[in-house]
Amino acid sequence: MVSVKIEGMGSSGDGLARVKGFVIFVPDTKVDEEVTVRITKVSRKVGFAEKVDDGEAQEPEADSEEEPEPEPEPEPEPPPEPKPQPPGHWEMAVAYRAGPRVIAGMFPRSGIDLIVTDPWGNASTVTSGTKPEHGTGACDFGGLNAGTYTVNLDGTQAAVELYLDGVGTAFVEFRPAARHGYVMRDP
Length: 187
Hints:
Helices cover 3% and strands 45% of the residues. It is an all-beta fold.
């Protein structure tokens, strides 16, 4: 058994906690609640636990063995450091609309990599132009939990933090800053 603090909510409504950096889902909990849990299942990436009554937590059975704590998954490699670039080359705009939890991006052309870092530090890359039905440089990144995400234009210092509240879509537009006369060149 282990005591945890519920840090957030999973997409199915279960509380989300961490044990030595390992994500644990706990049903019937609320954000900021401190509870004692028993780990019930461990998978490669996450664990599942159940709340333990206060009396049960203080008086464990004498002949029962304490369940082993799950081995934490190795820390993900941090995203590569952005290449230094003078500030002001990119303008960014963020708009929120009702819809699914998605980060939608719009770029001046296809083939631009965008790094999306989730609230737990995991980074994924999406390339502009993967949603041509929405425009030449459109892309999206979906299936997200509520939380603060960082969206970074790969290879630059251009980045924006945005909060998904679980009931809407964030639209991010990156465009070269006109006042600097910057023109993005193909690599």
